[in-house]
Structures are given as structure tokens and as C-alpha cells.
Amino acid sequence: MARTYNCGVGAVLVVDKEFARQVLIDVQREEEAWVIGEVVPCSKDSCRVDIKNLMEAFQRKDLQLKHYVPEQTNGLQGPLTKGKVRVAVLISGTGTNLEALITSTKSPDSAAYIALVISNKSGVGGLQKAERAGIPTVVIDHKQYSSRGEFDKAMDKVLEEFSIEFVCLAGFMRILSGPFVKKWEGKILNVHPSLLPSFKGANAHKLVLEAGVRLTGCTVHFVAEEVDAGAIVFQEAVPVELGDTEETLSERVKKAEHRAFPAALQLVASGAVKLGPEGKLCWSMKK
């Protein structure tokens, strides 16, 4: 099969290993490209081409890939994604924040574009939103892995294969392992449904209502090893109204999230803000 089917490979570039990642990123701004192997010395009795794990890859059930080629172009200028930061969005459900990010990054003024959506669950609404937008999707079933670390390694491999430069957590219901967070430090954003550092954790709206505060909101922050503790990039306040339930408050906060998350991503992707020493924000004075 490998002799007769080219697996979609139209051309091959052989580059110095030191520059491989940067070349891949540059090519992917205009074309679909992958790292498919490496050139090594050939011993006398070995095959000149060695394809590893071909049948295993076809038989894997934990990873599902759907790829759609975006139709958006701007004529002689090339794809609208040229020069933009490649972002992956991690989801576990309906993907309402994903939809807001997709909409915002379609703007010519956006410094980012969504190059990949990963879900740990198949068949969720967020995958359908991504597919309709022409964004590649990958399902990595966390139940197929023995630990968080192993799952994160599989996810990291996919992110590398797509040359992802930044990651957004949009309703991703998995706690990331320490090594993964450390590797991607300063390159992961999460949105939390309260004004951090108040009301951390999974039951933010319940805690807000129990505390009787009159103001809550959402926070977009860099991801740190401690949950909901990373440097704050953007916040939007939301009033708590009389008679609010967890459901009504959640709906109002979600609308704020749909504005705050794209705004935070633009700040980071444009270089206006980055994570500096000791986990503190560094703001650029450039206009």
C-alpha cells in the first residue's frame, strides 16, 4: 500500500533539523504541511525507506482526525491566515467560546487564527462548529490513556504536528499535567466564570450566589500549574441581579466570556502582552 498510495504527499522538503520547525511554520502559513520523517544514514542491509507504525495508525481508535481545507483566500496576497499566530482550541462540549473565537479570528485585523480544534470527547457540538468553519479537528479520547501525563503527551504530539504556537482552553474539562503546562508556559489561555482571584473552581456561580456579592464576571488568564491561579490578561464584570439562579447568571456571564476571550487572545497574539518572569504580565508599549 505504501508503494502505491502517496498518503496525500504532493512534495517533500528536506531541511536542516535545526531549522525544521521554523520552516514548517513558514510553509503552513500558505500551504498544508507536515513533518513526515527524517533522513538518517542507511546501513548496508537495511531498506532505504522505512515506514513505521503505518498499520497501527490506521487501526487507532483513540484519535480521530477530520481535515477541511479553508476556502478563504485574498487573491494575490495568499491565504488570510498568512502571518497570523497558529492557535489550537481545546474543548469538551458545545464550544460556545470556540464559536466566539472563530468569529473574531476571521477578522482581517486579527493577529491569530484557529488552526486546530482538539476534543477529548467525540460527537460534541464544538467539533461540528469547527468542521463547519473548515477547521481541522482531532478527537483524543482521554479514556484510552492510563494517566493524565500519557494523555497530555498524545495531545502535545498533535499540537507539534500542527505547528501550534498558542493554545486556548474553551470548556476543556481536563486538568492539564504539570509537565504539559511547564512546556507550554506563557502559551495557554483559559477563561474562568468569575472575577479571579475570587470564586475559584468548578462551582463559581454557586459560590457567587452564596456569598451574596452584587458583581461577578469572567477572567481570561494564562494557565499555571495551580488551577485558576495564572496571570490575569482580561476581565469583564457582570452584575448579579435579584432572583438570579446559577443558570441565569451562567448565561449572562457566558455572553461576557464571548467578548473577553477574543479580546485576550488578540492582546497575546499581537504581542501586546506576554507572560514575563515570575509569572507576571509584561505589556508592550508599541501601538
TrEMBL record:
NCBIfam families: PurN
One protein family per Pfam: Formyl_trans_N
Keyword Transferase appears in the UniProt entry: yes
Residue intervals of the Formyl transferase N-terminal domain: 86-265
Domain of life: Eukaryota
Name of the protein in question: phosphoribosylglycinamide formyltransferase 1
Protein's pathway: Purine metabolism; IMP biosynthesis via de novo pathway; N(2)-formyl-N(1)-(5-phospho-D-ribosyl)glycinamide from N(1)-(5-phospho-D-ribosyl)glycinamide (10-formyl THF route): step 1/1
Catalytic activity annotation: N(1)-(5-phospho-beta-D-ribosyl)glycinamide + (6R)-10-formyltetrahydrofolate = N(2)-formyl-N(1)-(5-phospho-beta-D-ribosyl)glycinamide + (6S)-5,6,7,8-tetrahydrofolate + H(+)
Entry keyword annotation includes Transferase: yes
Gene Ontology molecular function: phosphoribosylglycinamide formyltransferase activity
Keywords: Purine biosynthesis, Transferase
Homology family: Belongs to the GART family.
Gene Ontology cellular component terms for the protein in this record: cytosol
Family annotation (HAMAP family): PurN (MF_01930)
Lineage, top ranks: Eukaryota, Metazoa, Chordata, Craniata, Vertebrata
Enzyme Commission number(s) of this protein: 2.1.2.2
GO BP term (any one): 'de novo' IMP biosynthetic process
